Amino acid sequence: MDLNSESVKRILAKYKFRDVAIEELQKVHRIHPDMKPLVGTYTFTDSSQKDLLKLVGNIPVRYQGRSYNLPILLWLLDSFPFTPPICLLRPTPNMVIREGKHVDARGRIYLPALHNWDHPKSTVNGLLAEMIAKFEEDPPLSSKTTGDDKDPNELLAFVSNLQITEGVRSDRLINKVTVIGGGDLGMASVMSILAKGTVDKLVLIDLAESSTKGGTMDLEIFSLPKVEVSKDLATTAGSKVVVVTANAWTNEQSYVGVVQTNVDLYRGIIPRLALLSPNAVLLIASQPVDIMTHVAWRQSGLPPTRVIGAGCNLDSERLNYILNIALVAQSTGKQGWVIGELSDKKVAVWSSIGLGTDPHAEIIQNSNSTKPLTDRAFEMLKGKGQRSWSVGLSIADITHSILMDQRKTHSVSTLAQGWGGIGAEVFLSLPCILGATGSTRLASMALGPEEESKLRDSVASLTSFLAQLRM
């Protein structure tokens, strides 16, 4: 691997762990000599740009007895190898991307090795090995078919897979939503989503093994437009949003046992939901929501941007209503949020001006002037319970933002690792911009001592609890 060109040396000199990065690149060269280092300018989602090193080349993939070379690109951030590469496909003009469990429409690659990256245990060679294995199971590229050119030897021209893909894509053209669970919350979610008027088709799945079942008969009797009631998960294919409200039947006495029953229920449905709708956003409302959102993410194999929990969205909307109406809050241009674990450890915070759709907007500490106001509103909030219909309205609000690609900010349960110095792999409610491609977590900064303490307590308790579950 040529690391001696002036442009490569100039960029490498800016890397925080230059010597370790060079050592890692040399290891890549020994296993994958085809991967070449180049210099380029990467554009981040907020439109900022940075000159970075990238690895460009092909990986060998075997499918149905044939060998193919898949063109890929790995962008190396300046903290590489302690942060994972940004991995992309590089389709040639005669190839099309096949969206799936590990690849989105833009060709970005999502793999467990990237989500769980931990150098030095995690390496680029290990990442490429997993990439090859996953792509041999589910090829991410196919050939463009034309009337004249149907060479069977052309890269990944798999007719059967193309037919399946095309069948799913026809559903993606409409705003299709699935609700899993026919209990009070499932029914409330159905009615609230329909009331928003942005859904073209809504499938309600009533699971026999769920404790939240039995409310679907009336829907079948009165035959609401756009609603299909089913027990077959196959009817969920092509959904843009999948809302999971189901909880399992259980005779368990311990809290861990009750949650484990839910985890086992999820194991039977979540992987299939992700397979049938690989580009959907999973919206989890089962309890405990932070734990079950984490479970859904692990079991689905979807990127964390596509798995969120209803979390503290309802509390946040209520908090701002109280601040703006009941307390006639000062015109500060700021917005209040409820963040953290959906428990007595959740906290109220402020956001910076112009939060809207800016991923760099920050959460700020309560000042001496704002803290009494926030505390008073938060105490008023604690007196309001969460009924099924109110949570259903919150779910509809989140679903609407995704379907309409509104880029609106919600406090939803999301992977909190890396936010505010959180090192553990836990899900907490944090402000996230929601749109058609999922969630974008907002930037963080230091909180006040009280808020910081509650979040740390939540991280510790969630980590301990997760360790007791069999995923």
UniProtKB/TrEMBL annotation:
<dbReference type="Pfam" id="PF02866">
    <property type="entry name" value="Ldh_1_C"/>
</dbReference>
<dbReference type="GO" id="GO:0006089">
    <property type="term" value="P:lactate metabolic process"/>
</dbReference>
<dbReference type="InterPro" id="IPR022383">
    <property type="entry name" value="Lactate/malate_DH_C"/>
</dbReference>
<dbReference type="GO" id="GO:0015031">
    <property type="term" value="P:protein transport"/>
</dbReference>
<dbReference type="GO" id="GO:0004459">
    <property type="term" value="F:L-lactate dehydrogenase (NAD+) activity"/>
</dbReference>
<dbReference type="InterPro" id="IPR016135">
    <property type="entry name" value="UBQ-conjugating_enzyme/RWD"/>
</dbReference>
<protein>
    <recommendedName>
        <fullName>UEV domain-containing protein</fullName>
    </recommendedName>
</protein>
<dbReference type="InterPro" id="IPR036291">
    <property type="entry name" value="NAD(P)-bd_dom_sf"/>
</dbReference>
<dbReference type="InterPro" id="IPR001236">
    <property type="entry name" value="Lactate/malate_DH_N"/>
</dbReference>
<feature type="domain" description="UEV">
    <location>
        <begin position="2"/>
        <end position="145"/>
    </location>
</feature>
<dbReference type="InterPro" id="IPR015955">
    <property type="entry name" value="Lactate_DH/Glyco_Ohase_4_C"/>
</dbReference>
<dbReference type="InterPro" id="IPR008883">
    <property type="entry name" value="UEV_N"/>
</dbReference>
<dbReference type="Pfam" id="PF05743">
    <property type="entry name" value="UEV"/>
</dbReference>
<dbReference type="InterPro" id="IPR001557">
    <property type="entry name" value="L-lactate/malate_DH"/>
</dbReference>
<dbReference type="Pfam" id="PF00056">
    <property type="entry name" value="Ldh_1_N"/>
</dbReference>
